[in-house]
Design brief:
By secondary structure, this protein is an alpha+beta fold. It contains two helices and three strands; from the N terminus they run βαββα. The protein has a three-stranded antiparallel sheet, with no helix packed on it. β2 and β3 form a beta hairpin. α1 crosses α2. It is globular.
Length: 66
Amino acid sequence: MKRELVTAVPPEEIQGILEKSKANLYICIKEGEPFYGAPRWRVVLKGSKEEIEKFMEVFMRARAGG
């Protein structure tokens, strides 16, 4: 399965979140595009549906402050 998301989270933080989630995924972070002065990164996730969900759960909690 492949999923693409666009986020303002810096690549270093995305890598840290991947390590915390312990999800078995391939992540490709592409060039950021400016959006009102802040870069937005295009992130491609490749892996099983369950592994992507595991990563996204940790990703959403990390960005919500919890």
